[in-house]
Specification:
The chain is mainly alpha-helical. The chain is 59% helix and 4% strand.
Length: 190
Amino acid sequence: MNRLPPLPPDRLDADALALYEKIIAGPRGRSMLDGQGALIGPFNAMLLSPPVGEALQELGAAIRYRSRLGDRAREIAILVVAGHQDSAFEQGVHEPIARGLGLTDAQLHALRTGAPLHLDDPEEAAVLRVARALVTRGELNDEEYAQLEPGVLVELTTLVGYYGTLALQLRVFATPPAGRKETSGGVADG
């Protein structure tokens, strides 16, 4: 059961409401709102500490919308973290995005489970190898380090850390997976 009930805008103080409005006015738009207008997933928890939530959501926006990683490579890396962390919420949000970018169900399954996966695109294959090394060992050997330019490594290591942080918060607050909503009796499909 969700430990943190949805926080609708009419129950927010001025600082939390300002953050709420910034999130829904940004590139994510209203896609992170439930039926009552409350933020879902990690964004709901960000409202509990507006200064930290502001910095965290801005970092996420930079990773998602202003990074040099290609769209498919970025989604592959996000799904590597989500699979490693068993983050059903992030899988529920990002698997449809990845599918829309052409990843197959078999590829998504491999990202979810850590199974071997061959990718033809050199950037995507390098991102996959490096992201998997980061989530399993927390470091890179010289060969892995050399696969991506240093600026891309900054972005990729930041992405891995950011989505690891979100996965931790989602677990701590027992946030329901995307597509599910809280009801008075627990969690229901939404």
